[in-house]
Amino acid sequence: MRSIWNGAISFGLVSIPIKLVNATENHSIHFRQIHLADGGRIRYRKVCELDEEEVQGGEIGKAYEDADGTMIPITDEDLAQLPLPTAKTIEIVAFVPADQIDPLQMDAAYYLSANGVPAAKPYTLLREALKRSNKVAVAKYALRGRERLGMLRVVDDVIAMHGLLWPDEIRAPEGVAPDGDVTVRDAELDLADALMDTLGEVDMDSLHDDYREAVEELIAAKASGETVRPAESGDTGGGKVIDLIAALENSVQAAKKSRGEAGDEGDGEMADVHPIKKTSGKSSASGKSSAQTTRKSSAAAKKSTSRSTPKSTGTKKSTSTTKKATAKKTTKTAAKKQTSSSGGSGAKKTASSRKRTSA
Question: pLDDT tens digits for 142-161?
């Protein structure tokens, strides 16, 4: 990485040569201004207000505008002659716990790199001292024509420096809080706690800029001549909360669903399973009485059936008697036929034998 500033860390009487390197980078997509009629690029030209002529960068200097509009020229030589001890030095002024630094003061971040082999030993000494003390170093340094405030801390095995705003550059939050007294119920706080627990923690490395990716896809589609369809915007409710409890409950369910956890309702994939309720003594007694009533009615039905049975039995007896008489008659008739037939055949045999004897 390319250094943007060279100097030294002043740690008491110890001087540590370092290089200042940007620790962050901007991935925002930048646009150019164009003329809508023909697509020509719009450029800004620096023009002098007195002679209305365009001025090149080498002809431009600095000046301070007084209250009456008078311009007071200030040269780089004038600034270089100022008694600024931090012009090339990051001067450590104190070591404080990290929680004493208000995050509102945080500005740009830099990495401090040891500049050369002789700087390795004191650099490591300061790094290890910061680690063991669990503190951060507050320092002053000069960059881009002004003195700044900074905070040094350890990131992995590197000393990082965060630019800090001066305390008088932080505005007081006057008139920002909601007007009037607002009461929050315990039930609402409980649901808020449940939502916080459901959302849980996040791996910061997994977060990314969705809007930038969408802009990149839009640019690629337009460059290839594809038709870009507008994305469907989700209904966020217009930022109007009617029922805070309902909104919190829905938020908890949505958070559980997004994390793949089984919610109480709303997934529509599994049927609700209800446990079988145990019957009480009264219900079991009523069940027994109903069963006994059913048994009694069945017994009564059987008795009524048995009472009506003799009539049908008598009919059956007469029918069987008739059948038996008919069978006897049939048997007698068959016997007579057999007798007559046997008698006829015997007479024929006797006549034939008589004829043979006479002959």
Answer: 887 788 999 999 999 999 99
